[in-house]
Amino acid sequence: MEKTWNNKAWFMVLPVLVLVAFSAVIPLMTVVNYSVQDTFGNNEFFWAGTDWFLETLESDRFWDALTRNLIFSAIILTIQIPLGIVIALNMPKKGIGVPICLVLMALPLLIPWNVVGTIWQVFGRVDIGLLGRTLASLGINYNYVQNPIDAWVTLIVMDVWHWTSLVVLLCYAGLVSIPDAYYQAAKIDGASRWSVFRYIQLPKMKRVLLIAFLLRFMDSFMIYTEPFVVTGGGPGNSTTFLSIDLVKMAIGQFDLGPAAALSIIYFLIILLLSWIFYTVMTTSDAQG
Amino acid sequence: MARINLEHIRHAYGAKPKSEADYALREVHHEWNDGGAYALLGPSGCGKTTLLNIISGLINPSEGRILFDGHDVTNLSTQERNIAQVFQFPVIYDTMTVYDNLAFPLRNRHVPEAEVDRRVKEIIEMTGLGGWAKKTARRLTADQKQKISLGRGLVRSDVSAILFDEPLTVIDPEMKWVLRSQIKRLHKQFGFTMVYVTHDQTEALTFADKVVVMYDGQIVQIGTPAELFERPRHTFVGYFIGSPGMNVLPATIEGSKAAVGNESIALNFQPKVTPGAKTELGIRPEFIMLGREGMPVMITKVEDIGRRKIVRARFADRPISIVVDEDGEIPAEPRVTFDPKAINVYADSWRVGEEA
After folding, report:
1. Which terminus of chain B has fewer Cβ atoms in its 10 Å neighbourhood, N or C?
2. pLDDT along chain A (288 residues), means of 10
3. Which residue of chain A is at minimal alpha-carbon distance from B159?
4. Can you tell me the mean pLDDT for B252-280?
5. How far apart are CA A52 and CA A256, in angstroms?
6. Which residues in chain B touch residue A190, judged by CB atoms under 8 angstroms apart?
7. For the segment A8-43, what is each residue's pLDDT rounded down to a tens digit?
8. Is residue A24 part of a domain?
């Protein structure tokens, strides 16, 4: 068949291009613009080349924050993915329990992030917070304002509370799509509970788990609002993640050049890690 | 291998069945002989699958008992009953290889690996999946997948019974034939008790020694293919078995005569009919002779189906079908006679015998 060439078709793509330009390309290019220049206000710019990038990459501040981010994401993923699977497996498949569970699960996801932060900030306070007071009265020395470990535990518990539901809902969607015949056949074949999970449920959840994994990785790696509200990056710098550092740099100190360079590096790290996870997980899928 | 007794089994899917209509299965009481090959035949929704799942233990019946070789197994799990079952749609473990799929039921039961290997290779050869043994099962076509499902049912040598739930629905016609004969051969070779659910009468009649016809949650007739054909106990059986099905004509019975419309038909027996019952006459299209003598009919259509012709006609203002040989002539003023030996009389849809 002869291919029809009609360049007018490009006009059809134009609205999308304009939209993407305004929503992504132009803001991103502004950041790129800042990252290679220096400014002292008055709209005067001086060419800085790769100086800001080198400065960022050589600073301990950047590497410390990045390490915190990586550790945080690793902990979040190791807790939330298995926990989400376990909860999804134990959710009812039919009956009145289904809508109840689904609504309960969806609730934390509906709460705005700064509200989540505020809830936990108050909840954990030693003087008036329910959690803080309770722990204190039990004789546990818990204070997220002074103790870095307590601050981390608070942030992790908060994130688990806030986001495990997402993993649960995705896994649940995967589980309910398995026809009854599979479970019946497994019974006939004498499969153990573990075999049913390993050979029926897990393979069926694989795709949604990939999505859950990527979403939770990206989100936890970009975490900002909740630690900002709860700990403000403290005590000391113990919960200063890249995002918090970035805002301090850009808005607190008004160092637009280094902040822009950090933004781009931050963005590239997320892009690269997501791509690696995606590739690794999909190729193992194709081979298996 | 086992003899299976179903004692007064009833089943309702709802929690508290109020009326007879709430039961998916209304009273099934039947013995399945050890080593028998049974086909469970009936239209969709008549309770075939429910009955099968009750035998295998996937469903616990609301009422009644199930015995295997005289032992009560009503409360035993599927695994304890040691049943193999093949489902309508292929179920495969798609992360496993074809070989592992087939070995799965054996390995779960801790069969020694040498024995597993021997059995699996046998099944692989039988199903012709040789080239696929080491590949993942996910990439197979639907009928290959169903062969694996079948294979997993057949791989165990010690099962009490093998149950098939319309296993060949997704398989193409040619392969259907092959697989059916293989199942049949396995039955002869190993003597498993087999129950085969289907809504395809050809499948049922070729597979089974005894065909169990179900309709509306109950067993309406159990018999050999010949019995079902010649003496259907219920008008439904007459209609369901045979192609085209039996002609059922409303009739009034008086002594050993039946009247259909204005026509009077002689019977060779005197049926025992309770007064007030709805009486009908059943005769198979194969036993109606079309010729120049007898009662008048009006032919509406002739369908040539190869070796035979099906004549659709109106008799006493009722549609009837008549089967004629390929070269049988159809006269210009057609008349019909009914073979008296092949006439069955039904009262309220159930066949009635001779007056005692």
Report:
1. C
2. 74 89 88 80 74 81 87 93 92 86 90 87 84 84 82 89 92 89 86 88 87 89 84 80 83 80 88 87 64
3. A188
4. 81
5. 10
6. 79, 105, 108-109
7. 878 888 899 999 988 888 888 888 888 888 877 667
8. no
Please indicate, yes or no, if residue A5 is contained in any of the structural domains: no
Cis peptide preceding B244, ω within 30 of 0: yes
Whether B24 and B217 have beta carbons less than 8 Å apart is answered as yes
Cis peptide before B296 (omega within 30 of 0): no
Which is nearest to B4 in space by CA: B40, B30, B22?
B30
Q: A162: buried, middle or exposed (CB in 10 Å: 19+, 13-18, 0-12)?
A: buried
Q: Angle B58-B61-B64 (CA atoms, 0-180°, nearest 5)?
A: 135
Residue A239 located in a structural domain: yes
- Indicate whether B156 pLDDT > 90: no
Of A187, A173, A196, the C-alpha closest to B83 is A187
A-B interface: how many C-beta pairs under 8 angstroms?
52
- The CATH number of residue A44's host domain is 1.10.3720.10
Is the pTM of the predicted complex or chain greater than 0.80? Answer: no
Q: How far is Cα B188 from Cα B205, in angstroms, rounded to an integer?
A: 16
pLDDT in tens, B40-85: 888 887 888 888 888 888 888 888 888 888 888 888 888 788 888 8
Q: What is the ipTM of this complex?
A: 0.73
Angle between helices B142-154 and A180-188 (to 10 degrees): 30
List the Cα angle A10/A11/A14 in 5-degree steps. 95
The answer as to whether A6 is a domain residue is no
Question: Shortest Cα distance from A194 to chain B (angstroms)?
Answer: 11
Nearest-neighbour CA in chain A from B201: distance (Å): 24
Give Cβ neighbours of residue A15 (< 8 Å, ≥ 6 apart): none
Range of the structural domain that residue A271 is part of: 30-287
Disruptive mutation site among A184, A189, A194, A205 for chain B (greatest number of B CBs within 10 Å): A189
3 state SS of B208: coil
Residues from chain A that touch B56, judged by Cβ atoms under 8 A, are 188
- What residue type is assigned to position B277 of the chain? A
Per-residue pLDDT tens for B193-214? 888 888 888 888 888 888 888 8
A residues 128-157 near B, CB within 8 Å?
none
Q: What is the mean pLDDT of residues B159-168?
A: 84
Closest to B260 measured CA to CA, from B249, B271, B270: B249
Answer yes or no: do A199 and B87 touch at CB < 8 A. no
Please say whether the beta carbons of B139 and B168 come within 8 A: no
